[in-house]
Amino acid sequence: VLWTQPGRLRWEVIHHGMVELQNFLPFQGLLFAITKWREEIVMVYPPRKISMAYSSLADPSICREYLLEVAGRMMLVLQHGNDDRACPKYAFRIFEVDIWRQKLLPICNLGSRALFLNTDRCLCVPTMSLPSLCSNSVYFSLPSSPAVMQSLSSGLSEDLAATCQIHDMKEKTRPSVRPFTIADHLLTYCNHMEWARGLMFREYHYIPDSFQELKKKIKVFSSAHSAYWNRRFKGKTLPYIIKWKTKLSSQTGFWLIVVFMMKSHYVKFLNYS
């Protein structure tokens, strides 16, 4: 992991050999993330050796982890269950994270709030101003359904997309079901790929092979995007790309953190003002 700040043309390495990270969370001017295999919350920036393990609470084979901010507090959400299409069962455990005291405090009730969970983004929204959403509930996705709501009060869940799927995973079965709900839009926002493509996640979480025209449009869009960056950085080395990105940051006023994974030769730029 490398870092810099606006106006500087030099980058400094702040982490060596860090395992793959997920669920980045900007929190009170700091940057935290979850390590993918160690079940650990780590501070990515500033470069301090601060981490907090929660492996005793999570079984990686049946659990997904999410890190998000709720009412000014850092929260860790553990999703336990199975992906059985015939009878999926899930339960959620929510903890307030006190990273400085190394404590996880159980949270039993979210009050008038709802959580939207995904590995790309997570949101906490007030239900008082959005009456179509259920309070003290979690909205998430399953392999068999793109929109599920589970009440933390009763433990009961509802498949919000059961009656409005536009295909059967093979062929189109009906036109788009409108209007879209607030929950549809928020779940799409939490899924970066569909949000960036302008597609509603509820409808296009899976695109069958029969949707040839749509797949061609997506391919053209992706190719044009890749071609632009290939032209700009053709034949350039990573230091040049970093220098160019630093110059851009000084113009936009953003802090930049770069996560570089050697195995996939992938550079991820995270912008924080």
The whole-angstrom Rg is 21 Å
Gross morphology is: globular
Average pLDDT works out at 80
Helical run tally: 5
Estimated helix fraction? 10-25%
The biggest beta sheet is recorded as: 5 strands, mixed
Which regions have little confidence, pLDDT < 50, spanning 5+ residues? 250-273
**What is the helix/strand order?**
EEEEEEEEEEEEEEEHHHHHEE
Lateral strand order in the biggest sheet: 12-11-13-14-15
Derived structural class: alpha+beta
Give the number of DSSP strands.
17
Q: Strand fraction band?
A: 35-45%
The total tally of domains equals: 1
What is the distance, rounded to the nearest whole angstrom, between the alpha carbons of the first and last residues?
A: 18 Å
Question: How would you describe what is shown here?
Answer:
- Helix content is 21%, strand content 35%.
- The protein has one domain (2-167, 177-272).
- With 273 residues, it is α+β, with helices and mostly antiparallel strands.
- Strands 12-11-13-14-15 form a five-stranded mixed beta sheet. It has a four-stranded antiparallel beta sheet with strand order 2-1-16-17, with helices on one face.
- Mean pLDDT is 80; it is low at 250-273.
- It is built from five helices and 17 strands.
- This is KIB1-4 beta-propeller domain-containing protein.
- Residues 3-141 form the KIB1-4 beta-propeller domain.
- Pfam families: Beta-prop_KIB1-4 (PF03478).
Secondary structure layout plus pairing:
Blueprint: E1 2-4, E2 12-13, E3 21-27, E4 30-35, E5 40-45, E6 51-53, E7 63-70, E8 73-81, E9 90-98, E10 103-107, E11 113-116, E12 123-126, E13 137-142, E14 145-151, E15 157-159, H1 182-190, H2 192-197, H3 201-204, H4 212-233, H5 238-252, E16 255-261, E17 266-272
Parallel strand pairs: 11-13
Antiparallel strand pairs: 1-2, 1-16, 3-4, 4-5, 5-6, 7-8, 8-9, 9-10, 11-12, 13-14, 14-15, 16-17
